[in-house]
Design a protein that fits this description.
The structure is a single chain. A seven-stranded parallel sheet has the order 2-1-7-6-5-4-3. The protein is built from ten helices and seven strands. By secondary structure, the chain is of the alpha/beta class. The N and C termini lie close together (about 10 Å). The protein is globular. Helix 4 packs parallel to helix 5 and helix 8 runs parallel beside helix 9. Bound molecules: zinc ion.
Length: about 280
């Protein structure tokens, strides 16, 4: 397993970690200055901006963009809305290509109230991803399918395990040239089949997110922990991923409205570097 001490260049910062308080251009400077190897931005920071200029700044700062976050949910109450969600994602994939992003992150959505048919939601997700594959290939952007913790099965993602995501990859992209799985320790650490599923994902792991599960967790969305402050054995999961061939940047993604998002950006980046060395 790679040693991350003193190697922020092997790591990437997802801008969600920094709380969306400063313009992307200053975050790019701060993350590059701190010595990180990559930065993954969100659409809210990019859309409506001069994307070519952002791409230029990232290139000049020698920052890799492992993933562009993230898809519009696929499931919808009706067919026109579903197709418009797919189109929305195609536009975002084109933006990801302009940014030079290696992948576009798929968080797929789930049932849309008042509907309660989870199987139908899964069907729309499968069809929706299928409709993106050719466009992603043409744009040279991989699709990084991120299974989420089952606590979000009702709204954010009807795909909840690595195995389920992998099955979808095999079914939709048997040639393995565009669709992969993004492993986020927050979402997958609890899974009794994790070791076997990650081993089976060899050649398909398109991203690796680290953070921690706090005990107690006050808010499952916005109270994620810094690596080392919670209950996830991050190193053993990273070891599984690297044994399965993952050699990309280790990306820190922490949504933390009440703790980390109240700290200065420079301080967050400092703590991240220490924790990557000792707890990830
Ligand atoms: Zn993630």
């Amino acid at each position: 397993m790679r040693d991350l001490s003193g190697r922020p260049d092997l790591c990437s910062v997802n801008t969600a970690t920094l709380g969306f308080r400063e313009p992307l251009s200053s975050l790019i400077d701060a993350v590059a200055r701190a010595g990180f190897g990559g930065l993954s931005p969100w659409r809210r920071e990019v859309e409506g901006q001069d994307i070519k200029a952002i791409a230029r700044q990232l290139r000049d700062a020698q920052l890799v963009v492992p993933g562009y976050c993230r898809s519009t949910y696929f499931p919808a109450a009706g067919r026109p809305h579903f197709l418009s969600n797919v189109d929305d994602n195609k536009r975002a994939i084109s933006d990801a290509a302009v940014l030079g992003a290696e992948s576009f992150v798929l968080v797929v959505g789930s049932i849309v109230p008042p509907h309660t048919d989870l199987a139908q939601a899964r069907g729309m997700v499968r069809e929706g991803i299928g409709l993106l594959l050719d466009h992603a290939r043409q744009q040279g952007v991989k699709l990084a399918l991120e299974p989420l913790h089952p606590v979000y099965a009702c709204d954010r993602s009807c795909i909840t395990t690595v195995r389920e995501a992998l099955d979808l990859c095999h079914a939709l992209d048997p040639g393995n040239d565009v669709l992969g799985v993004l492993l986020d320790v927050y979402h997958i650490w609890w899974d009794p089949a994790l070791a076997a599923s990650i081993a089976a994902a060899r050649g398909r792991i398109t991203g690796f997110h680290v953070n921690d599960w706090l005990l107690p967790t006050r808010d499952v969305l916005n109270d994620r922990g810094m690596m080392g402050d919670g209950v996830i054995d991050i190193r053993s999961i990273r070891s599984m991923a690297e044994d399965a061939g993952f050699d990309g940047l280790v990306e820190v993604e922490i949504f933390s409205t009440e703790t980390w998002w109240k700290r200065p950006v420079a301080e967050i980046l400092d703590v991240i570097k220490q924790r990557l060395a000792h707890a990830a």
